[in-house]
Amino acid sequence: MAYGRNKRKATKAALTRFENYFQTIKSNRNLSQTDLVELKMRAQRADQLLEDFNAAQLKIAATETDIDFDEHDSESEQFENKFYRITSEASKFLIDQMQPQVLTPNVETNLASNSNDDLANIRLPPINLPTFDGSYDQWLFFRDTFNSLIHSNFKLTPAKKCHYLRLSLKGVAAETISSLEISDANYDVAWNILNERFENKQILVSNHVTAIFNLPSLSRESGRGLRVILDGLQKHMGALTVLKMPTEHWDALICHIVTGKFDNVTRRAWDSKTFIEELPTYKELIDFLKDRCRILESFENSCFRNASNKIERPRQSHSNFHKNTSQSFVATNSNKKCTFCQKEHLIYTCPQFLQISATEKLNNAKQMKLCINCLSIGHATKNCRSSGCRKCGIFHHTLLHFNRTDSGTVQTNNNNTSTSSYFNSTETDLKDVATTSLSTHVMHTPLIYAPCSLVVNEKPNSNTVLLSTAIIKVFNTTDKSHLCRVLLDSGSQSNFNSERLCNLLQLPIENIKHSITGISQKIETINSRVFAKVQSNFSNFEANISCLVLKSITGNIPAISFDSSLLHIPKNIALADPDFSSAKPIDLQLGADIFWELIHIG
């Protein structure tokens, strides 16, 4: 009679010991292959416990006459429930640990052989081994991935695991276990060394917190920039959560840090959200960033498509074709330093030079090795292309003209020749020039002719060439217009935008690599591009254009201001640039791709 009860007690104790062992194995994150094999053997042995228990129960029922069958049945039910619960958990745990299949160094995952024929023929792409170079911020990802693919795979021998581990390590991490040979005994040693070396919670937390503080700050609105902030924030906050940091209590701190990285437009959009009763939460910040990124990326893609539709690539011969290369030829005379007094003005406007006689002017010009015809340096007089003296037509500058009297004697110009008297003498010439050359500044003529150069003389022989300029509307990312002074250049294959205008409009900048060729075949590399919408200041014409970004496009145009009233332009003509005679900067240059559309519209 005692034998049956002792057998039942021993069986129940054996099941309890198996349960305690399984719970210990289950809580261990770094299981070895030996641990899994031992668990499997114990589980197989535990399968016999139910039979042993039932045999003991039958023995008790057969030998004992005063048995309480209700209690006897309850004992059997409790044991069976406990048995099936423990063994099913152990079986599932073993199946989960056996799931990864590693067949090659690239870790291929194949479908089970008993799957249907269609799925069995599908070959999945290889899963590459994770790599680790010793960076603390990559340790958690490497540890979890390697543990799932290699470390917990009981089908691999420790020697193979050690080989895969060596293949996965680079740099400092590889040096950590470089002294260990590949063997069954050394795998656990190597894995434990890596865990002790890089499982440093203090350093890991510090690195991820520092990375959040070091997220990039935006100077202008950019979908790409906000996406970098969003992805980085989610990555590091997720890692800190895995490290069991109380990130759920960091909402106010994270919101303060991240919103400090916003540009002015994004910051205003964030501040416009009302948080009256409660402080903003981390989830609300993430939702805001996702919506903002979606809107900006959609806008930037739309601008890119519209600009691409407008851009017509010029045809080039095969021998002269260069990828991402365009040409632009815009030149202005920006050298205003006087060669006579070394002050900041041109020599033919120099008060000291104008005060001396024509003979002294000639002598000084020769001493300074100036061109006698244009009073410039850098070329010989015989190679000068200027037209010559405006008074006699001889090949010398007007300031060097000698007046001849009827008696044949030579007299010099009046030293006090004023600007107004000079303009009076040349006013007729200017009228003739204006009638054929000012059409590039007129917007409402029936037809706008090709641009011409207009030479305006403010002081004797002070040449200023007028290039085609206009005042147009340029729109920022919020569709607000700004007036901008542009240069119309039919000789340029690209449009150009100044950094000053980009900062003013806060346009999103795209990083590119583009070469442009200018005067004397000088090549310059452009690294930035923007897309913008422009509109006429007089009509409804508008276009989306792509512009290369330059620090500055050119100097002031025109180089010197002059009095436009001397041209006697009819007052009923609306000019594209009403202040075309004032020396002002250029922030946008429109090239040939849109220039002829403007000419066609008129």
Could you please describe the fold and organization of this structure?
This protein has 602 residues and is of the alpha+beta class. It folds into four domains: 2-98, Methane Monooxygenase Hydroxylase, Chain G, domain 1 (Up-down Bundle), CATH 1.20.58; 204-310, no CATH class; 357-414, no CATH class; 425-601, Cathepsin D, subunit A, domain 1. The protein has helices spanning 2-27, 33-46, 49-63, 69-98, 117-120, 136-151, 158-168, 171-176, 184-198, 201-213, 223-242, 251-259, 264-271, 282-310, 351-355, 358-367, 419-437, 499-505, 592-601; strands spanning 325-327, 402-404, 410-412, 454-457, 463-466, 469-475, 481-488, 495-498, 510-517, 523-535, 542-550, 588-590. The strands form three sheets. The protein has a six-stranded mixed barrel with strand order 6-7-12-8-11-10. A two-stranded antiparallel sheet has the order 2-3. Helix 3 (49-63) packs antiparallel against helix 4 (69-98). The longest helix is centred in the first third of the chain and has 30 residues, at 69-98. The N and C termini lie far apart (117 Å). Residues 100-120, 311-323 and 404-462 have low confidence and may be disordered.
Topology:
Blueprint: H1 2-27, H2 33-46, H3 49-63, H4 69-98, H5 117-120, H6 136-151, H7 158-168, H8 171-176, H9 184-198, H10 201-213, H11 223-242, H12 251-259, H13 264-271, H14 282-310, E1 325-327, H15 351-355, H16 358-367, E2 402-404, E3 410-412, H17 419-437, E4 454-457, E5 463-466, E6 469-475, E7 481-488, E8 495-498, H18 499-505, E9 510-517, E10 523-535, E11 542-550, E12 588-590, H19 592-601
Parallel strand pairs: 1-9, 7-12, 8-11
Antiparallel strand pairs: 2-3, 4-5, 6-7, 6-10, 8-12, 9-10, 10-11
